[in-house]
């Protein structure tokens, strides 16, 4: 989704949609691409979508442009957040939540004052003012006043910052902003943040009015480089946002029935990296991708990972159903699977004797006061699960081309 920024520059946004019609909309301005870690932006957007919210996210520090140095990024302005919100409002719906990471967090706080429909604002690693970005922005203010913009360096990348945005980041304006915000505010920050110190989060929290919340992301860096940190922040944001945006409507939609008919699955490209896919199954949404070692973004399981997961889930369900029908004291089932390619000559039961064949090793753990005979019977039942039978039988797949050009 492309939209025009305040200065006429074209900005690129990405939509993350829930399984059914969104109960509310979120505008997410982030700087994760600048930190070369898009995983956090995806994880957070998916968590919000899981709560029934549609998300428009855009990179607040986008590359300078085609033919330019890819290591130089342009920092967006508060007006770009307002422009993105207007685009979301006219094409989808008005944003009820503004979310910003790093300098994007400070921008959404300022932009919220111009959006009466916004009910809540959340920041992630956001500076209170330009002085809080480890002194990198304050010294270039005079340069920006003379030239209209300034250039700073963060790590191996350069960043072009406009005079207008530096002025928006003054302590006086941020004090005024928080005093007038009158929206629910969630401040997420890491005490270990090496770009924006924890003191900035404390200032944001202290100057804001109730309802306000401050959560420390212990051990995380500024760009949430560790997946566990990104997932934790995503879970917190998803649960918190549901309280203020679309509250009470998600359960009603879940009870309204599946979005797709039984047995229908839809898959389409997400547009993030070469392989990322969104999967719709009934009313559920999943993500598939390839590991980074194979050129993917690792934003979801691989296709073979999903295949093994289907076999594992079917195995556990089959054993649970069998034990329940027999009245056996099975307390817990766990299934561990590993997919690999092996030489066909090493497979005693395979008809193919040349090249390689797929192999799945399945280990079943059964808990409960079961007899030895009961355990052996349950293990044998694993081979009778429907997915296992499908994998070992002949599968007839028909492929059709849908004519999208027909009016």
Characteristic terms for this protein:
407 residues, alpha/beta, Rossmann fold, GMP Synthetase, Chain A, domain 3, 8-stranded mixed β-sheet, 4-stranded mixed β-sheet, 17 strands
SSE inventory with pairings:
Blueprint lengths: L1 E3 L5 E7 L7 E7 L7 H13 L2 E7 L1 E3 L8 E4 L2 H14 L3 E7 L1 H10 L7 E5 L16 H7 L1 E6 L2 E6 H6 L2 H10 L3 E6 L8 H10 L4 E5 L10 H18 L4 H6 L10 E5 L7 E5 L2 E5 L14 H24 L5 E12 L12 E12 L4 H10 L4 H7 L15
Parallel strand pairs: 3-4, 3-7, 6-10, 7-8, 8-11, 11-12
Antiparallel strand pairs: 1-2, 2-4, 5-6, 9-10, 13-14, 14-15, 16-17
Describe the structure.
With 407 residues, the protein is of the alpha/beta class. The protein folds into three domains: 2-254, Alpha/Beta hydrolase fold, catalytic domain (Rossmann fold, 3-Layer(aba) Sandwich); 265-294, no CATH class; 303-392, 2-Layer Sandwich (GMP Synthetase, Chain A, domain 3). Helix content is 33%, strand content 26%. The chain is elongated.
In short:
The protein is of the alpha/beta class and 407 residues long. 33% of the residues lie in helices and 26% in strands.
């Amino acid at each position: 989704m492309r939209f025009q920024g305040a200065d006429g520059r074209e900005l690129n946004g990405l939509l993350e949609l829930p399984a059914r019609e969104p109960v509310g909309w979120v505008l997410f301005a982030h700087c994760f691409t600048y930190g070369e870690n898009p995983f956090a932006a995806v994880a957070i957007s998916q968590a919000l979508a899981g709560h029934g919210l549609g998300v428009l996210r855009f990179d607040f520090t986008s590359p300078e442009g085609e033919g330019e140095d890819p290591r130089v990024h342009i920092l967006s302005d508060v007006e770009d957040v307002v422009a993105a919100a207007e685009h979301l409002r006219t094409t989808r719906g008005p944003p009820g939540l503004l979310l910003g990471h790093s300098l994007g967090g400070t921008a959404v706080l300022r932009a919220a004052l111009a959006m009466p429909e916004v009910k809540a604002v959340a920041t992630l690693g956001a500076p209170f003012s330009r002085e809080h970005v480890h002194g990198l922005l304050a010294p270039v203010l005079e340069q920006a006043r003379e030239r209209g913009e300034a250039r700073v360096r963060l790590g191996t990348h350069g960043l072009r910052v406009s005079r207008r945005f530096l002025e928006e980041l003054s302590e006086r304006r941020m004090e005024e902003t928080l005093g007038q915000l009158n929206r629910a505010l969630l401040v997420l920050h890491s005490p270990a943040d090496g770009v924006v110190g924890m003191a900035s989060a404390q200032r944001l929290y202290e100057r804001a009015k109730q309802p306000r919340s401050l959560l420390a992301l212990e051990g995380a860096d500024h760009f949430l480089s560790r997946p566990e940190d990104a997932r934790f922040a995503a879970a917190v944001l998803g649960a918190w946002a549901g309280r203020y945006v679309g509250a009470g409507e998600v359960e009603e939609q879940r009870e309204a029935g599946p979005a797709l008919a039984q047995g229908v699955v839809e898959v389409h490209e997400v547009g993030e990296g070469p392989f990322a896919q969104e999967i719709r199954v009934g009313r559920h949404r999943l993500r598939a991708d390839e590991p980074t070692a194979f050129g993917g973004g690792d934003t979801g399981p691989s296709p073979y990972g999903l295949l093994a997961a289907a076999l594992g889930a079917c195995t556990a369900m089959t054993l649970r159903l069998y034990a329940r029908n027999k009245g056996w004291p099975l307390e817990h089932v766990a299934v561990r699977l590993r997919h690999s390619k092996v030489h066909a000559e090493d497979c005693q039961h395979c008809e193919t004797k040349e090249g390689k064949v797929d192999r799945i090793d399945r280990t079943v753990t059964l808990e409960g006061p079961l007899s030895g005979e009961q355990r052996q019977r349950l293990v044998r039942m694993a081979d009778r699960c429907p997915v296992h039978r499908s994998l070992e039988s002949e599968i007839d797949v028909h492929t059709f081309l849908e004519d999208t050009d027909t009016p």
